[in-house]
């Protein structure tokens, strides 16, 4: 009888860069990621490696990962989706934008499953040719303002989606953003929206390797555990399938 592998999936998650404001390292940049992401992935059974914008990866190196998570953070540079900046935009981080868009492209070519969270969803949408609402309180008045503090919102999910397998067709989630997808690109499909306004809150890839993106923060609280469990299971299955195809891994 074949032995089942006990190897934990190796999941890479992106981090941002923050300028230290006090103490001995004031004025120096730090690679930052809230520990909630790492804890949620570990509790779902993954090994975690943090990916910093200063460390570029090749496609061969990225293919060593079983999954890629694009984490939350500041606004995207609006030039990524053909828009002009607004006063409401938070200062962009072009280095991180380019880093994460590049990682996403590599993951798609290598067949590595991707999970986008909040800003991560926006990177995926922009990389595929979509556009964003730059300030929801102005662009969609019916959507609750979440740019200043975490807000509980109701999301309706397509029954014919991987996301519904993890969460069901309706969920209350924790959102913390003021931008969201305006136009969904052809390579993606909307599988979740805000129950009151129709704002897109979840995307999946139409074809190819698994891509799942949510506009909320599943790492906050216990309600998002099912999403991380689902993603890690997807990464484990993709890794096993790759082993069968390639005979290595």
TrEMBL record:
Coiled coil: none annotated. Keywords: Glutamine amidotransferase, Transferase. SUPFAM superfamilies: Class I glutamine amidotransferase-like. It comes from the Bacteria. It comes from Brachybacterium phenoliresistens. One of its GO terms (biological process) is polyamine catabolic process. This is Glutamine amidotransferase. PROSITE patterns: GATASE_TYPE_1. The keyword Ribonucleoprotein does not apply.
């Amino acid at each position: 009888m074949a032995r089942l592998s006990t190897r934990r999936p190796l999941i890479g998650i992106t981090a941002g860069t923050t300028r230290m404001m006090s103490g001995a390292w004031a004025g120096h940049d730090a690679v930052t990621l809230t520990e909630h992401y790492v804890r949620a992935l570990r509790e779902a059974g993954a090994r975690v490696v943090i990916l910093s914008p200063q460390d570029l990866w090749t496609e061969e190196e990225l293919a060593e990962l079983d999954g890629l998570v694009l984490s939350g953070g500041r606004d995207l540079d609006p030039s990524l989706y053909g828009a002009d900046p607004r006063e409401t935009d938070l200062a962009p981080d072009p280095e991180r934008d380019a880093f994460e868009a590049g990682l996403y492209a590599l993951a798609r070519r290598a067949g590595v499953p991707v999970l986008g969270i909040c800003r991560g969803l926006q990177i995926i949408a922009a990389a595929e040719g979509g556009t964003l609402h730059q300030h929801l309180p102005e662009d969609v008045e019916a959507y609750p303002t979440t740019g200043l503090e975490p807000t509980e919102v109701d999301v309706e999910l397509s029954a014919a989606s991987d996301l519904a397998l993890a969460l069901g067709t309706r969920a209350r989630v924790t959102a913390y953003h003021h931008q969201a997808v305006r136009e969904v690109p052809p390579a993606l499909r909307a599988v979740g929206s805000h129950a009151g306004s129709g704002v897109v809150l979840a995307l999946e890839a139409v074809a190819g390797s698994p891509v799942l993106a949510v506009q909320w923060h599943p790492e906050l609280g216990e309600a998002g555990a099912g999403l991380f469990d689902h993603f890690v299971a997807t990464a484990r299955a993709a890794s096993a399938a790759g082993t069968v195809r390639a005979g290595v891994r």
